[in-house]
Amino acid sequence: MVVSAIQNGTVIDHVPARNLFKVIQILGLDRIDNQITFGTNLESKKLGRKAIIKISGLFFQDEDINRIALVAPDAKLNIIRDYEVVEKKVVEVPDSIVGIARCMNPKCITNFETVTTRFKVVSKKNVSLRCHYCEKITNQENLQII
Amino acid sequence: MKNRSLVSIDDFTTEEILRILDLTEEFEKEPTSRLLEGKVVATLFFEPSTRTRLSFESAISRLGGKIVGFSDASSSSVSKGETLNDTIRTVTNYCDLIVMRHPIEGSARFASEIATVPVINAGDGANQHPSQTLLDLYSIRKTQGKLDNLNIFMVGDLKYGRTVHSLMMAMSRWNATFNFISPEELKMPDEFKLYLDNLGLKYYEHNDFTDIISKADIIYMTRVQKERFSDPIEYEKVKNVYVLRNSMLKNTKPNMRILHPLPRVNEIHQDVDHNPKAYYFEQALNGVYTRQAILCSLLGIK
Q1: Could you report the per-residue pLDDT of B171-198, keeping only the tens digit for each?
Q2: Do B105 and A112 touch (CB under 8 A)?
Q3: What interface predicted TM-score (ipTM) does this complex get?
Q4: CA–CA dist B109, A134 (Å, integer)
């Protein structure tokens, strides 16, 4: 095993390698004291290069973990207790996105004032977001994570 | 509707829209009163829009309300670098309602979340201008006697024209059929056509007027602006194609009326003005009554 096992906690697998640090940022893993190990640029048949994150002693609520759906839509979570996988979870794109993404409209108020961005998810398959403020669509191709 | 803001036409249910139209009818019968006596309305125009501002200020004045505000960002604290956040937080203390026009899209929604008084969006960039949509709906209902099953023709700049987008979406609540007449470069964007497809509503696209306008109940004209064209030659080619002339109205339906959000440049020839089917100046007058209805609804007076 490239990244050593944990006794209790959460393993996030199948994160696209290029988005590893975005996942860390969105989940706030850079601001907690738990033991965390991660590996990146690991080989994956599905993703080419993937990353894996193991967080000791931390368990996520569904709504928290769904926040990474924009950057790691295929991520899989293993919940570990006593070195055993007791539950598996997949990430689901939520109905709304608060923060995280930038509105692509250069004339949107969120790109001028200090405002937390808010989007309604209008399509989950090919992620498409409608800005709560300017009502314009931001889609996968022009999606930028803040 | 008391203490609500009006940012986007979709903020209102169909019942609420009809209630505003009914109230507008009341104000048309009795436009002058003291209903807003003791109330202060702030009109914050971060970009100039003489017509919209005067219409709002006329609506407020005829109801005995007082107005504070500015008509141009250069004469306000914005020119000193104040954020919109700070302007709204301050002004909300001075008034009972804010009417705001701002060049940045989404600014009105943002303001409505900060202000402790209702906010009326009087245009936020290319996004929304709901009081225009409501006055258009009022003008349509008044001239046609109904809103259902009408054949609406929209002409000119259908790509950037925020008034046509909002009106189209609003009229889709009443099973309208749409005909879009525009140059190729200024066609109705796909997202709006998709919206109609999803509702199962019919629409047709044309590159010129032809005889089809004989089927119209409403012809909604807009300005084709030169600066919208990437190629100036394209503009020269089409600039006279989308001009409505009196001679073209011969075979149109007797109930047909011509609307225009104004200002007009040359897209409606002046020889149309005396035709009883020309309705754009009455439409502007309806704007004052509609704004009286909106103001009184949001303040909980009516």
Answers
A1: 999 999 999 999 988 999 998 999 999 9
A2: no
A3: 0.87
A4: 8
